[in-house]
Amino acid sequence: MAAAPVWSVDPRTGNPREQVAVEATAEEVDRAVRAAHAVRASLADRTVRAAFLRTAADLLAEAGEHVIEAADAETALGPARLTGELARTAAQLRAFAEVVDEGAFLDIHIDHEDATRTPPWPDLRRYKIPLGVVAVYAASNFPLAFSVPGGDTASALAAGCPVVVKAHPDHPATSELCASVLRRAAAQVGLPEDVLILLHGFEAGVELVRHPLVSAAGFTGSVRGGRALFDAAAARPAPIPFHGELGSLNPVVVTEAAAAERGEQIGAGLAGSMTMGAGQFCTKPGFVLAPAGETGDRLLKSLTEAVSDTEAGVLLDHRMRDAFLAGVRERAGLPDVEAPVTPGAGGEHTVAAGFLTVPAALLTTEGPHDALLEECFGPVTVVARYTSQDEITAVLSRLPGNLTATLQIATEEADGSAAALLAALTPLAGRVLVNGWPTGVAVAPAQQHGGPYPASTSTSTSVGATAIERWLRPVSYQTTPEALLPPELREDNPQGLPRRVDGRRA
Amino acid sequence: MAAAPVWSVDPRTGNPREQVAVEATAEEVDRAVRAAHAVRASLADRTVRAAFLRTAADLLAEAGEHVIEAADAETALGPARLTGELARTAAQLRAFAEVVDEGAFLDIHIDHEDATRTPPWPDLRRYKIPLGVVAVYAASNFPLAFSVPGGDTASALAAGCPVVVKAHPDHPATSELCASVLRRAAAQVGLPEDVLILLHGFEAGVELVRHPLVSAAGFTGSVRGGRALFDAAAARPAPIPFHGELGSLNPVVVTEAAAAERGEQIGAGLAGSMTMGAGQFCTKPGFVLAPAGETGDRLLKSLTEAVSDTEAGVLLDHRMRDAFLAGVRERAGLPDVEAPVTPGAGGEHTVAAGFLTVPAALLTTEGPHDALLEECFGPVTVVARYTSQDEITAVLSRLPGNLTATLQIATEEADGSAAALLAALTPLAGRVLVNGWPTGVAVAPAQQHGGPYPASTSTSTSVGATAIERWLRPVSYQTTPEALLPPELREDNPQGLPRRVDGRRA
After folding, report:
1. Of A459, B236, B353, B412, which has the fewest beta carbons less than 10 angstroms from its beta carbon?
2. Where are the domains of chain B?
3. Domain A24-106+129-246+458-472 coded CATH 3.40.605.10
4. Is the ipTM of this complex over 0.95?
5. What is the DSSP pairing of strand A163-166 with strand A133-137?
6. Sign of the C-alpha dihedral computed for residues B257, B261, B267 and B269 taken in this order
């Protein structure tokens, strides 16, 4: 049987652009994982890893024009957005190089022998070591920042783990370009190119998570796809950590006072955030609790105007367009749901942004309207209009886990009177915002991009410095002679690493 | 149908002692979880939590005599060992109180707004919050330190999570006593008693891990039981973290030079470690690679003498005794396996310690001898005799994951010449020892009690300060007004907590 071809497709027309590769067979997956596993020791040196990440950033920036051209042709995300995404991706690689240099992620603990403890302490020295080969499943909606050269790859390499990436079928040409950049960067710093290997194909992805030499996986995508891979990871003879970012509604609560103070501004801000990137952000605000009555009406008027002004957009592929149209149709058809701006088909290949409204009272108990509490990928949001605080609380208590939750408050509520609402939002999400919009995820140490299931399948973050923690495990050395200890754990701290000694920061 | 009775049984005779409780029905499990969930906010104050843990330690010490009497009657572990275990358990509760006081576990990151970043940083403040109700599955072999008042409970309460414990059927009376101590301690510091609830029954345990309001689970026990619960946790509509410590062979490698230098001492040390607590430690050295030939013979002679001198012991229950006898019989019956001291039945209720030998060459490839590479709970170990370094390497590469791996080297090998062997042992375990014995697990920050599967089902530790990390998840607040922030994240750091600010330790 001939190998299945992998085509790059233009989402603006639905036409194939070029054949980029072929899908990997089970044998090829096995070969790739073994090759990555065989070179894992080459990543042991932190200095080399940091240099690799910085070189990758440099080469990616150098290749920028080609990469952006390919990515735009495959994703229709547009050069402006992709230029920003490339800069972000390069900055992310550099940020992880800094994390590697500093070494705090090694989480070094040294406890000297202490006979006075109950029970007595022997000399114990602990740090974190890389887990081994990491499988990365690239996202559709960020062909760079959450794909081949993205956060999962950067953090896994920073941790010292070789990476096998399963490309997303929506941007195989971009993936090939980026993989060659990363492999070139490896070679430039004297590393084997196989510290990063790219694979294509759905079946290859399933084989990958089952491979005995794969030690952990990172995933960004749909609930259905992510859950299937999570289940496969958990069902292995030896289960592995599966860090998946699956889906998120990203609820927003607008207080009555906030709507009164700046309803127009909130409506316009919401329109901008929910239509950004044609509504294909995992942090798109997909569900808004706004007041019923006149104050809320002003917000909706401004939202209506801004959304109506939005140009039709191209989604990442035609399957997503079909899913969007079906999802919108299902939701708009529910009783008492209205569409002040009807989301749906734009032209033959585009979609038009819109939003739905529903009385919040219909969402306080289980029923057919629960479809409105599920993510709908694309430029649509649902505004549920509440008539009381109790309705807000009741609806919030029914929401699934989220990446983000946002509170829009009035100036005077910043004095602490909004504390109860903030406390009600905190259990729902990994990131809680006040008077901001959730789209746009800073690559910062304090970032948390992950949240209760289905937002993610673990308690970790996939963005920011601490994302590196996902690919490490602690190992402790007991009564081990100095000359046999890894340098990181030696008494004289030759690498000048931050550490805790005898329970205190040193 | 009448509720199933829960009996306390004397393992020295197999006779029931008293009916302690009844098994919880599904309804009772639901009620328990809801009750624990309802009081979760009471644990929000760190000062109260620390006081609770210290009071629990005090009350446990006060109740010591009764607790030890009950535990000895149910487990036959003996007053000396149980007195030590009680002291360790109280010290562990106090150690977690210190962890709570210091607050480093909150892992606070504060990043101020910074427009020069790519993309720009908004004000972001992250710390860790408790996950919610934690299910704890108590161990058979540590009725205190890994049971109701043990490390899982202590670390979960320290994290701010209410705990529902599923008692181990081998010590229900001890469990009831300890639960009442913990609930009394809660009341003494003004907490609701339901921050700790005890349940009995196998089915109750299964219900517990499936309950939608249970947020995480900790388990210490067998591979079979732990894997079944892990699978149930992963199969939930919303999967939860399952931190299980399942099984471990705890390999030991004795170099030729070590055997030559102090073979007798190693033999005696091994005998002590493998027969401690009737071989019922999860860190029992269950597999030893020792040299063939005369040097190895000396080690074996000393091991033979010491093991022969060991008195017959009582296992925790008669089911374990049956499993031990069957396991030993299966292994001893394999071709070319010898039993210099035959492990097996002692008296009617006891077992006699022993050990088996096998040529290491029989273990370098898959075959019937692979049974020797599986844990056998009880006072038995397997000594595989190697004739070359290659045999050591080949056998090590076939071992499953372990809690510990031990290297016995000669004085001159401490100069670094044993580094390759140490490097071969590190991927196998969470704790690596040189010239020590793995039984005895210090409650220290640098401890790692956990290892590659099946040693544990996650990368975490169940002993030591960092065990608290299992019950937390990060949440980040973006552009949140000072008055709405939790005190832990306020600019002026009113609680004086350790934190990282703008990527640096502050």
Report:
1. B412
2. 24-246+458-472, 251-434
3. yes
4. yes
5. parallel
6. negative
